[in-house]
Amino acid sequence: MSALRAWLITDPLIALATIFFATISMLVSLFDNAGRRQAAVARAWSRVLLAVSGVKVRVEGGEKISPDGSYVFASNHASYMDTPVVLANIPVQFRFMAKKGLFSIPFLGWHLGRAGHIPVFRDNPRAAVKTLGLAAEAIGGACSAGRWRASSRNAPASSWTLSNCSTRWRRLGSLAQAMAK
C-alpha cells in the first residue's frame, strides 16, 4: 500500500513541487546576484518535500550555529532526502559542493550555477584544487559551504566539530589557492 501511495501521490507531488519551485528559483535568480532569495526558495522547496514525504527531522546542536559565522558542513549521503533535510534545517546561508555532472542537468544545473553552488571536478586533480579555492572564497565571503562525503550514500556517518572545521577549511583553501596559481 505504501508503494502505491508513493507512485500515485508522493512522487507526483514531489515532481510538481520541484518544477514549481525550480521555475520560481530561476525567475528570482534574475534579480538576486547573491543567491539569498534562491536559497529561500530552495528552503521552501525542501520543507514541502519533507512534508509531502512524511519525513520528520529532529535537529540537535542547532543552537551552536551562529548566524554570523562561516562553516563547513559535511554530511554522509545516506539517502535522496539528504538535500532537503540539510536545506530545510541549516539556519545559515550556504553553498553546496556538488559533482560537476549535476551542473549539466537542465533546471537543476541552472539553479546550482545561478545560486553560486560549487562544482567539484572529481576526475581532474588540478581542477579539484581550484574547487577548494572557490569554496574557501565562499566561506571568506561569510557564506558557508556544504559537501557530501565522496563515497556516496552508503558511507558510514562521519562527524566534524564545527569549530575545527572552519579553521581547517581556511587552511586548506589557502593551500589550494597557492597550488592553483
| H/E topology pattern | HHEHEHEHEH
Provide the structure class. alpha/beta
**What is the end-to-end distance?**
58 Å
Strand content: 5-15%
Total helical segments:
6
List segments where confidence is low: pLDDT < 50 over at least 5 consecutive residues. 150-181
Trace the largest sheet across and list its strands.
1-4-2-3
Morphology: globular
Number of strands: 4
Short summary of the structure?
This protein is α/β, with parallel strands linked by helices. The protein is 53% helix and 10% strand.
Which terms summarize this structure?
181 residues, alpha/beta, 6 helices, 4 strands, 53% helix, disordered C terminus
